[in-house]
Design goal:
By secondary structure, the chain is an alpha+beta fold. Helix content is 36%, strand content 19%. Among the domains are: 49 residues, Phosphatidylinositol 3-kinase Catalytic Subunit, Chain A, domain 1 (Ubiquitin-like (UB roll), Roll), CATH 3.10.20; 136 residues, Cathepsin D, subunit A, domain 1, CATH 2.40.70; 47 residues, Helicase, Ruva Protein, domain 3, CATH 1.10.8. The protein has a 6-stranded mixed β-barrel with strand order 4-5-10-6-9-8. The chain is elongated. Pfam families: Asp_protease, UBA, ubiquitin.
Length: 408
Amino acid sequence: MTADEKFISLDVDPDEAVENVKALLEVESGVVLQQQQLMYNGREMNNHDKLSVLGVCDGDLIMMLSNAAPPSRPSSSDLALSPDGSAVNPAAFQQQVRGDSNLMAQLYQSDPELAQAISGNDLNRLQEILRQRHHQKTALRQKEEEELALHYADPFDVDAQRKIEASIRQKGIDENWAAAIEHNPEAFARVVMLYVDMEVNGVPIKAFVDSGAQSTIISKRCAERCGLLRLLDERYKGIARGVGQMEILGRIHVAHIKIGKVFYPCSFTVLDSDNMEFLFGLDMLRKHQCIIDLKENALKVGGGEVSVPFLPEKDIPSHFLDEESFAKQASSSGAPVSSGSKDTRDIPSAPIGSQSSGAAGGNPAQGPDFEAKVAKLVELGFPRNDVIQALQLFNGNEEQAAGFLFGG
């Protein structure tokens, strides 16, 4: 039996030494061997004595006392806070707050972050949070003092009235923010872009679905992994300029992609970019009559004949989650792209993802090449005016114009 009236039952051999019994009690009670004092019939038991020699029999009661010194209470100076709000002795401060169950319960309700730091083992993190709380309280106190001073300011003081106006405006902003936190908290969460599982030339990939990009784009590294780099047409080389700058290596005119269990023909613009692997752009979305269904969280292809779910964040590789910078570059809002000709001259008005037909400058609606393209598309059954408009829309690119006409 221990001093706090806790009973511990041990099954030991009568010839066992008292020291070994203490070792067993250390495991059961947590009191180290050196701090144990065993008493039998009012007499202390020496470590080297055997139980049988002391007359200890089966069922007898042995008293265990602990001679450990009681924990010292921290001094008031150890619990004090520095001028910056951090604790003078963070370990003592942490121990003192931990020992107050009522205070810890209040902290978990009012400031869970601070409560977790006190419950944890990272004293540097605790000090950092204490400084943050001190800074916040100081800033709040200063703000209250400034508002009080403005309340008693001279109504004819122009500067004071400006400050009052700014204070009223900021108060409206703060109230709007608080209302958003309460009624629309999801607006503050990070929005994960839309990705789906696809296969390009039999190779599984995570495709970034972006209706703001005019063309479907594949990186050089991904094209090489999919075995498509051998089909790269370098006549469509250029420089894509937007928020940043990327080199257009050329174009792959047709390859099969697999969405769900169905194969679809697709063309790609190849970029020398590490920010993304594969971007499924508006040209193929329109051609294959895709529907971005956010209610069902799925991409529907062919007007709904195939439906594939958008990937949850846990299934998207972490290096893909930095797609915002590329999305800005790949969007059609004022991002120019160079000519598709080999001389790589810029066409400031063309959005990224669109290339010229390969002619080095000039109006794409003039010349025998343009008329040949018109005639070829008219033979497919499209009206001449529609063909001309489509070719002009895509700067004379015959394949994109055909895709547009088929998709329309």
